[in-house]
Amino acid sequence: MSDDRQPADGSREGRRFTAYLATAALGRTGVEAMTPALLLAALTLGRPPLDGVLLVAAATASAALGGPFAGAVLDQVRRPALAYAGVLCLTCGGLALLGRLMTFAPLPPLMAVAAVIGIGHPMLSGALTAQLARILPAWRLPRALSLDVAVFSVAGMAGPALAGLGVTFTAEGQLLLVGAPFALALLPLGGMRLPRRAAGRGAGWPAIGSGLRAMVADRVLREVTVLTSFTAFAQAGLVVAAPLLSVALTGGLRWTGVLLVTLAAGNLVVSVVTARWPLRGRPEVVVRASAVAYAALLCLLGLVKGPPLTLVVMFLAGTVTAPLFTGLFRTRFERSPLHVQSGVFGTGAGLRSFSFACGAATLGVVAQYGVVWCLLAAGLAQLAGLALGLLTHAPWRPAPPPREPGVAQDEAPVPGPAGAL
């Protein structure tokens, strides 16, 4: 490509990436707002608290099971943008319907609607990240992935805050408010200009397992998938421990939000820094090192005393998750073929949702014996994930993944040297 074409191409790629960030931020904010909004809506209507918990469980379970399906759909459909538009409309409409039904309907149909809504969540998390290889050249992926991790942090802070804004509304109004980000995400979606798939690639139902097969076939992918699934398990323990830490520090729950925002802020700061100066080295090594640091900080968090030290350790715990997930995303791009990357990312998102739910249930029981034991168990779980992941490790062999017929070189999913921007 001639030099006079590069600025125009760079400007076009920049606009597409900006549209991607806006779409991801809005969609993921809505996803993060759903859990507290469902709980608050149930309480607003005077329904038993268990109803809200079961609605969240239905949405989470369908997200975990729907990850491979969502990824396969994106890998097979000719127009991925239309699939995303459909999911956004389905989620927005489903929340409006759920808010209406909650005023009079029994629990089973409400859980069915929540489950339908949750199926599309992996498309807005991991499977959306997979589209970066289709809108950016390979050499821009390291920086783009760091910013994508930052979007997760922003959504993690903005989502609960959005749900909190609706506490004075009716239950229906609360869920309509949470549905607003999904509707707004339709506006920048077209600016991503996701390329169409070639005709005749459909593989039907067998494609649903393509992401999982790709993850199992590659030992490095298998390692980081096992490791980060245990990271999600440990993260659930940290969320469970936050209100208990608040009570231990202040005698009340008012510091719960402060602790979780501090955690997200640490992730956000490092994500922005590594977007400017990407980490060098093999991504799976970065994932391992980050996992060790995260396990140590979880254990340390259970031992430190006083608000200042607790806030410092929470912030540091957030900082190490940023390179961990950036390394995970880079590994998926480098080690999986382009035509199944949505399946790999979608399946990974589903596994993480399942692991988080298991962690919340298991470590919630452990927390009854004290917050220290909860955090120590979370740290040990992360180390167990590291050990299990290493059992599947093999020396890194950079073999180019299979290419789709007609895929241009600048659409290849394998980034150049780490940090080359």
UniProtKB/TrEMBL annotation:
Where does this chain mainly localize? membrane
Record carries keyword Cell membrane: yes
Residues annotated as transmembrane:
20-46, 52-74, 81-98, 110-133, 145-167, 173-191, 224-249, 255-273, 285-304, 310-331, 343-364, 370-391
Q: How does it sit in the membrane?
A: Multi-pass membrane protein
Q: Name one Pfam family in it.
A: MFS_1
Ranges for region Disordered: 399-421
Name where it's found. Answer: Cell membrane
Judging by the UniProt lineage, the source's domain of life is: Bacteria
What does the entry list under GO cellular component?
Answer: plasma membrane
**UniProt keyword Repeat, yes or no:** no
- GO molecular function per UniProt: transmembrane transporter activity
User: What keywords tag this UniProt record?
Assistant: Cell membrane, Membrane, Transmembrane, Transmembrane helix
Q: What is this protein called?
A: MFS family permease
Question: Which species is listed as the source?
Answer: Sphaerisporangium rubeum
